[in-house]
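User: Please work through this fold.
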Amino acid sequence: MTSTSAKRLIPEHLCARCGACVPACPHGVLALDAELFPFYARESACTECRRCLAVCPGVAVDFRAPAADRADVHPLLGAYRDVWQACSRDAAIRERASSGGAVTALISEGLRAGALDAVLAVTMRPGDPTRAAYAVLTDPAEAERSGQAKYQIAHLAEVLPEIRRHERVAVVGLPCHIHALRKFEALEPDLGRCIAVRLGTFCNGVCEREGTLYLLRRLGVRPESVRHLEYRRGPWPGVLWVEHDGGAPVAIRRDVYGALLYLYLAERCLYCIDLTAEQADLSFGDAKWANARGDGRWSHLIVRTQRGAEFLARIGSGLELRSAAPADIVREQAYQFDFKKRRAFLRLRHRRPVPEYALVEATAPSGGRLREALFMGAYRSRRIIRAGLAAVPPGLLWWLSRRLFGRIRRHPPDSSGVSSPAGPVAPGG
């Protein structure tokens, strides 16, 4: 629940907590509470101009109008021009990244070459390395340090106005961030003209910060003692790496802790149908199969728009590319597409109000309905489950997590019977 008793802008379950509504208000009416939900801080100043709702991706996203100048439209991937696998040619970037460092390589080279003046990307907040936050990056070295997934909610409220200070800005974000950005651009075209490229990352859902704090507690680390935190350090799939004042660094593998984060999944993510950042110019996602085989570190790269293709052609010399196809992503992300593109519509039936997508509901098979019933039963009971897990010794908890979740296989329809090699990935990954 939100920590304020003031009037909220929209119901909690609709709010993506992207923060775009705050700078959209011309009268400073809105603010974000401690859990990043927008509320009326100065309700008497509201003129009911509805600009806040115009930029809100929580209430509506029009998937009938994907990014402009599309070449093809795939029923699961959305609009695309080309599909690749990509990784940075720079070994240092590649080794530090979650899966190949393709995004990091593009934004750092864009800054270095003068194609970009600034980048909006999520980092860990200075002074509080347990909290993710958007930052405006202008130094290539800063951009390289910002790599890796951040499994937390982060908002755009403070950084969106900063776009106007620059002529060529790249924005890196989850699908909901890109949705908000597109809607903000429609409301303020001058801001849109400052955006050189939108880089979206695949997302199966994002977590409350409490999920990170939970993992720290189970690792025996006090949050206030943390000096440095990375979610996916080291060889793929990476480890949660924590340096703290209390002793030696601690770590736990992503494929062990990832499923536990579903107990902290933000509710709005249950009703989102965009896995692959369909409204970005370039979309990136973990190429799990290649990485699991030890073929290096790779990301899927979907080129969606002419702007994205031109940016890749101009700045992409630092990337190694190999050809791929939409079917490769569909097979590899079988569980994720089932969760986002089919079962999300089952959830939408039982929640009111719901986001407006202007789409015909996708059909979920009977097996999907059973999986959904089991998932939602666990999700609705998440507070009870969290309390029960608090009594489980850490070693047993990690063992149970990996045994019960890490080997799950899914076989959704239209996926050639092939599922993710690691089962359900961590939200956001």
